[in-house]
Amino acid sequence: MPTVRLSFSPAPAHVRTARLVGVAVARRAGVAEELLEEVRLAIGEACSRAVALHRSHGLDDLVDVAMADGDRFTVRVVDRAANGAMVHKAPQDDAVVLLSDPALPLTTPPDLLAEEAVAARMGLALLAGLVDDLNVSELAEGVGTEVRMSWPLERSSDRPA
């Protein structure tokens, strides 16, 4: 299972590079052509969210992205910001998505929210609607969150020659 790793400073300009690398790796791994636009959008949203969180917390730490092709093409985007919002999909109903941000009550007036914080929360909502296999969780070690997304791979017999 080959893994491609990419780390970049939290600047919006680097998100485009992450998207381009992600789509190239997905194509090579065997993700169906019709899913590549979804992969591109999802990687862009996850990376933009990480950049926004880093910027809103004043962090210079690198954003880490790892792409692997095992049974599925999996992308992990890791930020180092404290108290990133979480996504929980209800097990019985894929249409139900709950967004929660432990650091920010839902009653916070919009004018008190930094632009980056709003972007981070909106990114999760977009990801939840875009990616079927999405998991956002706190890091087991250290501070931050991990966005894990995956897509099915075509079987080699299904791929055009």
Q: What topology does this entry show?
A:
Layout lengths: L2 E6 L4 H17 L6 H21 L6 E7 L2 E8 L6 E4 L7 E4 L14 H16 L2 E6 L6 E8 L9
Model description:
The chain is an alpha+beta fold. Helix content is 34%, strand content 27%. The protein is built from three helices and seven strands. The model is unreliable at 86-109 (pLDDT under 50).
Quick overview:
With 161 residues, this protein is α+β, with helices and mostly antiparallel strands. The protein has 3 helices and 7 strands.
Order of helices and strands: EHHEEEEHEE
Q: Spans of 5+ residues with little confidence (pLDDT < 50)?
A: 86-109
The gyration radius over C-alpha positions equals: 16 Å
Q: Helix/strand-derived class?
A: alpha+beta
* Estimated share of beta-strand residues: 25-35%
- With strands numbered from the N-terminus, the spatial order across the biggest sheet is 1-2-3-7-6
* Terminal residue distance: 22 Å
Any idea what the shape is?
A: globular
Most strands sheet: 5 strands, antiparallel
**What integer is the average pLDDT?**
80
Total E-strand runs: 7
- What's the total helix number? 3
**Helicity level, as a percent range?**
25-40%
